[in-house]
Amino acid sequence: MTAQDKLIKASHLINMDDIIREGHPTLREKAAEVALPLSDEDIILGEKMMQFLKNSQDPVTAEKMGLRGGVGLAAPQLDVSKRIIACLVPNPEDEEGNPPTEAYSLQAIMYNPKIVAHSVQQAALADGEGCLSVDRVVEGYVPRHARITVEYLDKNGEKHKVKFKGYNAIVVQHEIDHLNGVMFYDRINIAEPFKIEDGVIILD
Predict the structure, then answer these.
(1) Where does Fe cation bind (predicted)?
(2) 197 counts as catalytic
């Protein structure tokens, strides 16, 4: 039984045991493009990945299942070397603590995503980045494009071309990196982790 066969069983919910950690060779491979038309197996895997993100962001479910909160997941992190990512970025509450009108600023399962355009300007998260496949804190700025345009297919095989900026752009780039065998800390300046190059936006 392949890793994907196990993950897509009807009774299985993706958990932390399914996520491979740094050092595993699959995380350094360039993932294969997903064949078209999409197979039921690949559609189910994408939906299970999104379900994991929802579960990880629900305090009760996350505690019950022992999940670390995540806003993105790539198939290679599940030992499935295919170009599939899921991103789920919640909108914050307003200043009075009311829930946002739209629950998510980004909710997408992307098949064969690719960055087709990007800004020269770069951005990095003030607190650095973390990863479900990395069980340690790696400090330092991770410079990425501040704005990107991504083409991808949805589960119906329809093509989308979407612009992302700010935090959402960082999340999508982090996940696409996984499809290319790149870890977030590969982008940190090892000698000077918090050095800021001219013009880089630091996002809180």
Answers:
(1) 131, 174, 178
(2) no
